[in-house]
Amino acid sequence: MDILSRMEELILLSVWKLQDEAYGLEIRKHLYELTGQDLSVGAVYVPLKRLKKRGYLESWDSEPTDERGGRSKRFFKLTQKGVGALQQVKTVQEHAWSGLPDIGFGWTPSKS
Predict the structure, then answer these.
(1) Whole-structure pTM value
(2) Which DSSP helix (H) or strand (E) runs through 60?
(3) 96 has a pLDDT exceeding 70
(4) Would you tell me which CATH number, out of the four given (1.10.760.10, 1.10.10.10, 2.40.110.10, 3.40.50.300), belongs to the domain 6-89?
(5) Cα(first)–Cα(last) distance of the chain, in Å?
């Protein structure tokens, strides 16, 4: 079983959420909204490349735009394998959390 890291999971979820707007800067912004952490470019692009290499994402470049000084944007999209990886990690998390005591307000671990 190839389990995603938490960052890989968050990146795949961001790509899924952003759909047609899933490119580097927007993915970083979405991750900031989710985590409150201002991640470096490398902290996002390295896992994006790794996820693409593993077959969880596909990418393509837009046409160059004047607003970006003639540079293009690299867009990302989930593949079926990427959807499967997210489904798998969700199932694993649900199993890991099932049967545990509620950790809501006022909960403290039992003393041994």
Answers:
(1) 0.84
(2) strand 57-61
(3) yes
(4) 1.10.10.10
(5) 35
